[in-house]
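Hi all, long-time lurker, first post. I run a small reading group and we've been trying to get comfortable going from sequence to structure in the token notation. Rather than ask abstract questions, I figured I'd post a concrete chain and ask someone more experienced to write out its structure so we can walk through it together at our next meeting. Sequence below, copied exactly:
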Amino acid sequence: MAHLQQVTTSSSKPLIHALNPGNSSASYTHAYFIQSKISCKLGAKSSEFRGVAFVHRSTRNVSQTCKAQEIQAVMASDKETDATNAIKGRGLRGKLNKVVLAYSGGLDTSVIVPWLRENYGCEVVCFTADVGQGISELEGLEAKAKASGACQLVVKDLTEEFVKDYVYPCLRAGAVYERKYLLGTSMARPVIAKAMVDVAKEVGADAVRFELTFFSLNPDLQVVAPWREWDITGREDAIEYAKKHNVPVPVTKKSIYSRDRNLWHLSHEGDILEDPANEPKKDMYMMSVDPEDAPNKPEYLEIGIVSGIPVSINGKELSPASLLAELNDIGGRHGIGRIDMVENRLVGMKSRGVYETPGGTILAAACRELESLTLDREAIQFKDMMALKYAELVYAGRWFDPLRESMDSFMENITKTTTGSVTLKLYKGSVIVASRKSPYSLYREDISSFESGQIYDQADAAGFIRLYGLPMRVRAMLEKEKGKM
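-- Answer (accepted) --
Happy to help. Here is the structure in token form:
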């Protein structure tokens, strides 16, 4: 998921910077370009970085807000540029005053900090959204940000909001991109974008998120794309750049998986995964055990659902984030939720990714199964068609698009009777439905029985079948007549 940042320019118009974060460590960084998980990932053969963005406005002098630290190294000798010039005045490419950078602590965002200062002479305020990526991802982040040259780090806990207002609507909609991907990275973009706007105001800068979100929130914003400007063409170049600027990064040339983590999932890209023919290494996974090593005894779970939204586990009501966290633990120890797929990015190129979504896989199975009781045939078919478009919009970064919002209203209405419970059996990587119950169930045993009854008489089917099969009979008769000619 892409990150945004804010910057101020000498122009009176807000300016957006779309930078590249691929998040090399297991950080939550949404290192994807606005419109989708564009292949722009570090480690690609060309400069395919995924975009991070920031917005800047020079209508306010914030040079006194925080004392920028000097970068501890200089550019390559062929540049012959002292990095401290970024603090004193114009940078190599112009002058910006203040930038709010969506920061994960990974390779990409760590490199962006000195790059911004060096090229635009600006102060950098780092922003980190806690969307459930784990405590380990946040430890030492402030020190790391300042060591990279930032003057401040702002952290906001968005976990409950993320699950309640973004994950659950997608779950209710049944949104799955290209048959497999449960949109873990895509769903976190808009909640972080929304928070970026608030942080930008707090620190005196205009901030928005991905480009499409910028367009939604402020159509006057301009876009500046550093990855189109800099000489960094891959992950190894980024590592070298970090070394030259004494920027602490958590990766090496030998360990270059690109990961994105939040409470819903953990994605893996890069390294041997670049070749779709390679099987993922066993030690790559972090949220789930190998199904072969999972317990030999199955575990049963009852998921309570109200109007298409999960509310409880085994009768115990939990907050959205707490419920998902508990299911991640349970599903993870049973090897649930591993997906290996080749997907089509928005720009048309294919990319291979491996995802771990233990809790999400369990919830998706439960919600889908309960709908088999509460929705009729036409409703299910139409909802499934809508879900495909819904997933495409979310994947493309169009969360704030009026079409998605309108579709969400439909999803909320169509699932208002999807209330009940589903019992699932978890065993060595599989999720098996054991039972389902709903007070709004359309299933009637007295109708479904093969025994004739007052509501449904088996003999009534004869006439229906003859009429339903009429087109096939007519076609067969025509072919038979042609055969005699």
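A couple of things your group might point at:
The first strand starts at residue 5 and ends at 7.
DSSP finds 15 helices and 16 strands in the chain.
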